[in-house]
Amino acid sequence: MSDSQFSRLPPLNTLRCFTLAAEHLSFKAAAQALFVTQAAVSHQIRTLEDHLGVKLFERLNREVRLTPEGHALLPYVQEAFASLNTGVSRLRADPNPDRLKVSVIPSFASAWLAPRLGSFRQRQPQYRVVLNPTHDVDTFDGETDVALRFGSGRYPGLVSEWLMHDTLMAVCVPDMIPPEGATIDWLRSVDLVEDLDYEPEPWGRWVQQQGHLWEGFNVAMTIEDSRMLIDITLAGGFVGLARKSLVQSHLLSGRLIKVFPFELPMAFSYYLVAPERYLKRPKVAAFRKWLIREMQTTFLPEMWDFHGT
After folding, report:
1. Do the Cβ atoms of 303 and 164 come closer than 8 Å?
2. What is the pLDDT of residues 13-33, one digit of tens each?
3. Are 14 and 81 contained in the same domain?
4. How much is the pTM?
5. Who contacts 18 (Cβ-Cβ below 8 Å, separation ≥6)?
């Protein structure tokens, strides 16, 4: 529709007042429905009549009646408002009710979520899952339904549900540990690898929080990828400072071992993030319920504290 066509249309408020007054044959009833005064409705309808150049109502002593012009106009206005309501409702509704698109940080996607999505499909086979591994914080102006983020939990305009803590632990392959066991002096003699993806100088903080001086330790490799750190550590030759959530499966299988009891608390946590209205979608609610149950059975109790479950 061109600008000139829009300019010929009467104001939307005048049409809304006309529709209600015509359906009730009462300016008073229209005013009550719109929470305005009867005089305001009368003014809007008179504005519409002036705009169209025709009289739409016959104003009698105690009632109003539609003129032939009013009768002719009413079904078109009713149809237009019905079409608007349908369009707005479809926009608010889920455009893809059978597809669940999850935005998730790549490290958590590959180390934990992706291997378990078969379990979600078994329980909810009606949903086709689309996984989007990305570090970008989704603005939800596309097709994403829900996001799993590792951060501060502050995502403006979105609901952010806290899920789980995480810590950094020293891990290595079993055959790196000397027969007499791992000690701080031994740790000074080996190559260390650290991940700067979320924490600054993690090895330095890990050492110092246990009361040791940093001198003598050798960070031989620094990366910004949590998945790569785990791969490097699995290959042997390095002691890695890895996120507990990402190495649990390797610890259970025995491919990696926890070298020291101390774990360094991380500043960030895991969050489930989405617009509030998206959380009411059946597929998002089903995914959230499944996710929480999986985390409760996978991670140690001190890592999670789910609210409202």
Report:
1. yes
2. 999 999 999 999 999 999 999
3. yes
4. 0.68
5. 44, 45, 48, 56, 70, 73, 74, 77
